[in-house]
């Protein structure tokens, strides 16, 4: 019994563009004899794993490479041949003119060279630190090169950097007390800023005056208004630019409820028109619109809840639009309507009313009464793949009617018993079979 299993193959020269994981493919590259084998790997990748191309490469090498043969077009210079003929590394160094002392040069992760400068090599520093010379020489740090990050970290918390040890001293960490000791008190004869002297527990009745002295202001007692003409709980205001005379505003705040009366407007708005949390309706509010279409909506108005609901109910509709019945047999296969030529919109839905086969420009479908066709895109959908077909009465297949079939697992090869469409057991012998992955 002859069994043949074929993988994907191509007589061209291009590698396969898509293989499932574990799927094999062979590219013949006809005319060159340069066959290559590929396999699909995870993540839609493709790996080249072998083929005649690599076998020929291996066959071109001697077993121990002692007589490795280069192509006839390869040219080796006399200098290259000399290096190849050198017996060891020392001979190669001699051929290249490299001093063996260089073999003791060590370059580590920080690029440190061991050895010493004999004075005949000039070293030049560049960057934030500059300088040049042989042996020992002076270097200069560039202006503004030392950033805060390059300074040492402070030792204590909540300190100032400064110097209180005299001219020429080093920068040190100063406490708050040490730092403020360097500052002057505020000036009393100019606008120069400075520290405020402490009150030394004089008490709440003392205030710092313009002379820099803590003292008790002159006067005291209640502020006197216009006498009995002022209503109880009335808000007072100062009259005139001097702010000396207090007058009654007529605006009263109740003792217990804090209700405000006597105020005509607030920030230019009539008090009676202010919105309250206890208001039950928006009648009279000009910024509230009742427009179910939202045609009068603007950035300065609010819609009523009824308008919002009506607008949403109208705007939110089903994504499927029923277009009516569909007869696949009308017009000599053109259908009624002709779905292959008309312009459709995504969601257009038709119900099959006459059973038959409908042929699109690309593809066809056997349709039964009650089946539903739904457009999956906008435009002229002349490909069966652009339509979703919902079967209404899919049943088991018979000898004359298409439908579904149930296929169990079978072991191929030799004599096996199968059940035909009529339900009769039939013995069959498989002499050979072919599994073909197709071409690409």
In short:
With 440 residues, this protein is mainly β. Among the domains are: 37 residues, no CATH class; 42 residues, no CATH class; 70 residues, no CATH class. 9% of the residues lie in helices and 26% in strands.
Helix content: under 10%
Number of distinct helices: 5
Whole-number mean pLDDT? 75
Number of strands: 30
Instruction: Report the end-to-end length measured between terminal Cα atoms.
Output: 29 Å
Tell me the strand percentage band.
25-35%
The largest β sheet comes out as:
4 strands, mixed
What's the arrangement of strands in the largest beta sheet? 2-3-4-5
Radius of gyration: 49 Å
SS content category: mainly beta
Q: Would you kindly provide a written description of the structure presented here, covering whatever features stand out?
A:
The protein is mainly β. The protein is built from five helices and 30 strands. Among the domains are: 228-264, no CATH class; 275-316, no CATH class; 321-390, no CATH class. Helix content is 9%, strand content 26%. The strands form twelve sheets. A four-stranded mixed β-sheet has the order 2-3-4-5. The chain has a four-stranded mixed β-sheet with strand order 20-22-25-27, with no helix packed on it. The chain has a three-stranded antiparallel β-sheet with strand order 6-7-8, with no helix packed on it. The longest helix is centred in the C-terminal third of the chain and has 11 residues, at 305-315. The model has no long low-confidence stretch (mean pLDDT 75).
